[in-house]
Amino acid sequence: MSTVLKASLPQAKPQISRLALTALVCGLLLSGCGSNPSKDQGSFQQAAIPSEQPQQTVAQLLKLARSSQAREASQYLLQAAQQLSEQEELSWAQNLLKNIDPMLLNNSDFIEYSILHGKLAMEDGSYFIAKDSFSSQRLAQLQGQMQADQKQRLGELKATLFTLLGDTEAGVQERLALRQWLNIDQLADNQSALWQTLMMESPDKLAALAKQQQQPLFKGWYELATIAKSQRDSIEQQQAKVQQWQLHNPTHPAAQNLPEDLRLLGRLIDEQPRKVSIMLPSRGKYSRAGKAIRDGFMAAYYQAKENGQSTPQLELIDSSQGDIVQLYQNAVQSGSELVIGPLDKGQVRRLNDSAQLSIPVLAMNYIQAPSNNLASEYQPLLFQFGLALEDEARQSAQRAYLEGHRRALVIAPQSSWGNRGTQAFIEEWQALGGEIVGEQRFTGKGDYSRVIKNSLQLDLSETRYRNLQRILGSNLEFEPRRRQDIDMIFVLANNNQARQIKPTLAFHYASKIPVYATSHIYGGREANKANRDLNGIRFTALPWLIDEDESLRLAVDEYAKPIPAYQQLYALGADSFALYPRLSQLAQVQQLQLQGRTGRLQMLSNGQLARQQDWAIMRNGKARALANLSQQ
Questions:
Q1: What is residue 630's predicted lDDT score, i.e. its pLDDT?
Q2: Residue 539 forms beta bridges with which residues?
Q3: Mean pLDDT of 474-490
Q4: Phi/psi of residue 341, each to 5°?
Q5: Could you tell me if 132 and 165 are in contact, meaning their C-beta atoms sit under 8 angstroms apart?
Q6: Measured between alpha carbons, how far is 496 from 445 in angstroms, rounded to an integer?
Q7: What number of other Cβ atoms are within 10 A of residue 255's Cβ?
Q8: Which neighbouring-strand residues pair with 16?
Q9: Is 473 buried (19+), middle (13-18) or exposed (0-12) by CB count in 10 A?
Q10: Cα angle for residues 577, 578, 581 (degrees, 5° grid)
Q11: How high is the pLDDT of residue 608?
């Protein structure tokens, strides 16, 4: 259940037991809700059940519905469903709504039915069903008959829904339309929700929306959001642009009440570190990864200097030489105000377990996968940032669920990496309400066909054919039939593995099942021809790799000639440069998302930085961007 919706539901106790309600519903279904309506009952304007009667319990309403004509019974069922929804008996409320013919409801009840039907669909994760409910032709025609509270409830739900579906423009329109129905306190909450919607959009899309908008209210919001999301501006440049925006938009609602993250800019300028120590390995098994991160940081550093931005004094420390706690103390004594690194998990743990940290540390790895449940385990000045597989696996589950899938097959390598990703996907999928119908592991040693054949249960189909052929004693025409209870496949694999898995799925009659994957399947632009084997796969994607105009990546490609396996680490280094002066901003504004080269970055309450990556689909061997959806 989304937290936005859950917060709005009263915590009331049910007025009727599940056992009693089950009996009543069964009786209601068996009775067919009374006799069919007569021909003269066709008007939608039939009077509603008198409102001056004392409110009946759910049990009483169901009994009344059981003995009533179909039209009146639908009204009683709607009232019962509304009560159950208020009591958070959501599945019971949904079951009652399924037995209502909305065509039998008068206009007032139809409005309430549509709002409740859409709300319950959203609670269930069926966002496209909710969208259909809110956009019905009849509901649109009844806009003029809605009461103020109905417009407010419907507008809030639609605004939340559009945000969840990644439709920023529609979400903003609903938020701004809501303003006329809200009091002062509600206006502040609505403006905060509007800003969160804007912050989920890419800078390029925000700039395009600002350019095409003519209304000052809308245009002002898009322009301000574009400034806030710019990843190429320093804090000083961003502050100057905000002040300029305020001069040009003095009457805009945000001019005198800036979003909290923008109000913090002045303080960030005063507090940003003047000296930074880069503590990454130059020797040992992590040396190549350390070099990639360091080079990504330095590329962003020199680009900032060329653009006239203020940059800190740097100190490079080899974390592979000596005790990490002592190296940290040396950095403090040399005057550093922040440390970036280390990369090794063991060293990050050592720093966390040592005496209280005196200056912030932006570690380039996680002690454990990002989670809000570990706040007490970490020192307050330890911030953890990395490329967690678990982040991407969870986002794959969220995306597939938002797009309407419920039964998943998981295909992953037999390895600790595969175990981590599989566990994260399954936990998130089941928490959302999805079902795992199968889990198969491959070794990558020529066993793709066998694993996929088993997972699709084609072997059972062939066994049934052989048995039937033996019984009949004659040859039969036969085409294997795969299992039909799968509506999506989650694949954990690298580029080479995925390029063998996807065609094998098609060979085994599964070409039409949607496939979701993590960014690890992508081999980069130079592998476009080979990537055609991945056509149709939806995958989490780093903006660094799919943004055609990423100037910093182009510079790194030219001078560092990075191999594909380390491209993500260059992006990690570049993002660490963008993050170092904004750590306190992200820590204080929990909903703030920074648009980075590795994705949209948001700090959890324990100091871990979680990533929401962009999405892409492979078409003709090329990664094509998909609209971002949201899981709140």
A1: 57
A2: 517, 616
A3: 68
A4: 120, 180
A5: no
A6: 12
A7: 15
A8: none
A9: exposed
A10: 90
A11: 94
Gap between the Cα atoms of 310 and 234, Å rounded = 8
pLDDT number for residue 51: 41
Domains of the chain (ranges plus CATH)?
3-37+47-146 (no CATH), 201-266 (no CATH), 272-388+552-591 (3.40.50.2300), 390-547+616-626 (3.40.50.2300)
Q: Which residues contact 344 (CB under 8 A, 6 or more apart)?
A: 281, 286, 319, 324, 365
pTM over 0.90: no
How far is the CA of 377 from the CAs of 312, 381, 391, 608, in angstroms? 30, 12, 20, 11
pLDDT tens, residue by residue, 420-431: 999 999 999 999
Per-residue pLDDT of 340-361, as tens digits, reads 999 999 999 999 998 789 999 9
Place of tokens 């504004």: 589
User: pLDDT averaged over the chain?
Assistant: 84
> If you search the block for the tokens 């496949």, which residue do you land on?
489
pLDDT tens digits, one per residue of 543-571: 888 876 678 888 887 777 777 778 889 99
Task: Kindly give, in sequence order, each residue whose CB lies less than 8 Å from that of residue 402, ignoring residues fewer than 6 positions away.
Answer: 125, 127, 164, 165, 629, 631
The per-residue pLDDT for 393 is 96
Rounded distance between C-alpha atoms, residue 291 and residue 282, angstroms:
7
b/e sequence 227-247, b meaning 16+ C-beta within 10 Å: bbbbbbbbbbbbbebbeebbe
- CB 632, CB 6: distance < 8 Å: no
- Residue 231 neighbours by CB under 8 Å, 6+ apart: 203, 578, 594, 595, 596, 597
Q: Which two tokens stand for residue 81?
A: 């469903």
Kindly report, residue by residue over 140-159, the tens digit of the pLDDT: 999 999 999 999 999 999 99
